[in-house]
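Lecture 7 notes. Example A: sequence first, then its structure tokens.
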Amino acid sequence: MSPRTTKQFEAIRQERRSEILDAALHVFAEEGYHSASVSRIAKKANVSKGLMYNYFDSKEAVLRTLMYDLFDYAMDLMKIQPDEVITDERFAEIIELSIQIPLKEPQRWKLYMSFVFQKDVTEMLMAQMADKMLPYMNAMSVYFKSKGYEDPMAMMRIFTAVLDGIQMHCLLDPENFPAEKAKEYLIQQFAKS
């Protein structure tokens, strides 16, 4: 048997990292961030606590990485570029993709929502995620400014709040919530020429 290559070691490392983050998502959702322990996350991921510290130096580092990865994943799914100029057609596509995300992977996003709304987690993440979210918020704000809104940043916040609510309802009641109607209404309301 030949020794593993650097590429194979990196693939193993990335797989282990993903397993730890997936375990952390479940543990944070089930137990709450403050009640969760590094030992519990390591056990759920089937790794030793010591090995886990080779990947993350603290529980907060796990949380931060988990949030950054989920944010990047959502932005990749919506194909949003930080500095893009958003057109009406592109805005309609963003709305459509945003509503599809919770419908495609409901379990993952239910777990995410269940721990992101924990008060202490929200406060910690808002401070840490602000810089990462700012380019996207600015692109949306520029779009709303082009539509003639007096306070485009406020309109962007209102729009994202409405979208968050729709995503939440898609998760809570996917069989009965009129996701298609909601999508049509949002496009009609916000992505108008």
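Example B, a different protein, same format:
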Amino acid sequence: MDFYRIDEKYNRFLQDYEKEKRGVTKVPNIRYTDHNKFAFGAVMQVNGINYYVSVSSFEKKQEANILIRVPEDEKEVKGSLRFNYMVPVPDECIEKLIIKDIEDEKYRLLLNKEYRFCKENEGRIQKKANKIYELVTTNRKQILTDNSCAFHILEEGYREYIEKYLKGRIV
């Protein structure tokens, strides 16, 4: 498990695909002004498909997230992992985030703290990913389902993207 950047073209494809099939998309935007959003994963695997969860600056505790905490820091909560927005991503559409190559020292230190938290909590993270996936795909809580990515639709989009854009491509 590591931090990754998800290919923007693939992310836009998933957003468009979900919107076309569902009428709305919950796939998060990954473009920010100063830093693009990145993801932690693979947090789970479903039918051979790896899922990645966004590392977000969102700091409010909710059922579908895990707060990233650094107890020794003055500002303990650094952000969260938001499992209702996790997405399936082919290996060809992710790039490992090399933290030591980040020039902004303050941001690099924050990333190291977030990464350490994620590595120390891998089991808990995987358990939460599986739980949220199961709750959403079986529609056990309508409000959660409504505010989550449609995982089955995204898996169809994942397969279509591979077929259309990656099959036969030399990686």
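Note on Example B: The helical segments are 8-22, 105-120, 122-137, 142-146, 151-166. The chain has one domain: 2-163.
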